[in-house]
């Protein structure tokens, strides 16, 4: 049994990476010290007691807020059932979900017939079963000062790297030299904020390196 700090739980379509288009339940965990300047979930950074609420309040949230609740894996699973979610893929995101031991949650979900996926910055040791699909979006030289861990890069099933400029591509190339991935790990470039220049750079680099493009489909079709 483990207790997780939950920022939100909702059902949607995964818009990024290998699972793009997959009906998914998102479990967003609270807390992240990594400090990316362009982070689009800054509401998850702090774990303030003053923002603690009941699970029922968290479930009905309709906009971004720093409110959170405690829930163990059984409560999380029961919530899926009570909410009538039909998706069988669960994306555990954040915040930085690897601040938590995700084994109890993923193991329970696997036993109930779900597949699981983690979206992590690669700056905390990954505590999750082998079956869990791990997406590492390596956050290199961010304000919080957390290095990307070689163990996370090696565990990754896919790397998803946000880029806007050539320097971001070079950062990833250097990281892959210092912290190699497995041979079958997929590498995605994801243009930051749907900017045209970033998208063009990502397309050209993917063609050159035989990498893949991830375009955050949910932002183009206007869903969460
Ligand atoms: S690691 Fe993720 S949640 Fe944390 S600051 Fe960076 S983008 Fe935001």
TrEMBL record:
<dbReference type="InterPro" id="IPR027609">
    <property type="entry name" value="rSAM_QueE_proteobac"/>
</dbReference>
<keyword id="KW-0408">Iron</keyword>
<keyword id="KW-0671">Queuosine biosynthesis</keyword>
<feature type="binding site">
    <location>
        <position position="41"/>
    </location>
    <ligand>
        <name>Mg(2+)</name>
    </ligand>
</feature>
<keyword id="KW-0004">4Fe-4S</keyword>
<comment type="subunit">
    <text>Homodimer.</text>
</comment>
<dbReference type="InterPro" id="IPR024924">
    <property type="entry name" value="7-CO-7-deazaguanine_synth-like"/>
</dbReference>
<feature type="binding site">
    <location>
        <position position="95"/>
    </location>
    <ligand>
        <name>S-adenosyl-L-methionine</name>
    </ligand>
</feature>
<comment type="similarity">
    <text>Belongs to the radical SAM superfamily. 7-carboxy-7-deazaguanine synthase family.</text>
</comment>
<comment type="function">
    <text>Catalyzes the complex heterocyclic radical-mediated conversion of 6-carboxy-5,6,7,8-tetrahydropterin (CPH4) to 7-carboxy-7-deazaguanine (CDG), a step common to the biosynthetic pathways of all 7-deazapurine-containing compounds.</text>
</comment>
<dbReference type="GO" id="GO:0016829">
    <property type="term" value="F:lyase activity"/>
</dbReference>
<comment type="pathway">
    <text>Purine metabolism; 7-cyano-7-deazaguanine biosynthesis.</text>
</comment>
<keyword id="KW-0456">Lyase</keyword>
<protein>
    <recommendedName>
        <fullName>7-carboxy-7-deazaguanine synthase</fullName>
        <ecNumber>4.3.99.3</ecNumber>
    </recommendedName>
</protein>
<feature type="binding site">
    <location>
        <position position="39"/>
    </location>
    <ligand>
        <name>[4Fe-4S] cluster</name>
    </ligand>
</feature>
<keyword id="KW-0949">S-adenosyl-L-methionine</keyword>
<feature type="binding site">
    <location>
        <position position="32"/>
    </location>
    <ligand>
        <name>[4Fe-4S] cluster</name>
    </ligand>
</feature>
<feature type="domain" description="Radical SAM core">
    <location>
        <begin position="19"/>
        <end position="224"/>
    </location>
</feature>
<dbReference type="InterPro" id="IPR007197">
    <property type="entry name" value="rSAM"/>
</dbReference>
<keyword id="KW-0460">Magnesium</keyword>
<keyword id="KW-0479">Metal-binding</keyword>
<feature type="binding site">
    <location>
        <begin position="13"/>
        <end position="15"/>
    </location>
    <ligand>
        <name>substrate</name>
    </ligand>
</feature>
<feature type="binding site">
    <location>
        <begin position="38"/>
        <end position="40"/>
    </location>
    <ligand>
        <name>S-adenosyl-L-methionine</name>
    </ligand>
</feature>
<feature type="binding site">
    <location>
        <position position="28"/>
    </location>
    <ligand>
        <name>substrate</name>
    </ligand>
</feature>
<dbReference type="InterPro" id="IPR013785">
    <property type="entry name" value="Aldolase_TIM"/>
</dbReference>
<dbReference type="InterPro" id="IPR058240">
    <property type="entry name" value="rSAM_sf"/>
</dbReference>
<feature type="binding site">
    <location>
        <position position="93"/>
    </location>
    <ligand>
        <name>substrate</name>
    </ligand>
</feature>
<feature type="binding site">
    <location>
        <begin position="137"/>
        <end position="139"/>
    </location>
    <ligand>
        <name>S-adenosyl-L-methionine</name>
    </ligand>
</feature>
<feature type="binding site">
    <location>
        <position position="36"/>
    </location>
    <ligand>
        <name>[4Fe-4S] cluster</name>
    </ligand>
</feature>
<keyword id="KW-0411">Iron-sulfur</keyword>
């Amino acid at each position: 049994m483990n207790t997780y700090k939950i920022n939100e739980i909702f059902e949607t379509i995964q818009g990024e990476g290998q699972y793009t288009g997959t009906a998914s339940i998102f479990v967003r965990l609270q807390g992240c010290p990594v400090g990316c300047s362009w982070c689009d979930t800054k509401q998850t950074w702090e774990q303030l007691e003053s923002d603690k609420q009941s699970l029922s309040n968290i479930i009905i949230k309709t906009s971004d807020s720093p409110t959170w609740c405690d829930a163990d894996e059984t409560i999380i699973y029961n919530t899926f059932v009570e909410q009538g979610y039909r998706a069988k893929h669960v994306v555990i995101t954040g915040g930085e979900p690897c601040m938590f031991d995700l084994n109890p949650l993923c193991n329970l979900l696997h036993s109930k017939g779900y597949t699981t996926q983690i979206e992590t910055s690669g700056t905390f040791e990954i505590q999750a079963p082998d079956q869990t699909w791990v997406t590492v979006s390596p956050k290199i030289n961010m304000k919080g000062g957390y290095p990307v861990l070689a163990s996370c890069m090696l565990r990754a099933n896919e790397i998803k790297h946000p880029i806007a400029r050539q320097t971001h591509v070079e950062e990833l190339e250097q990281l892959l030299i210092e912290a190699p991935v497995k041979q079958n790990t997929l590498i995605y470039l994801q243009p930051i904020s749907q900017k045209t220049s970033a998208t063009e750079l990502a397309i050209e680099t993917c063609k050159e390196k035989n990498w893949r493009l991830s375009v955050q489909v949910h932002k183009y079709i206007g869903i969460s």
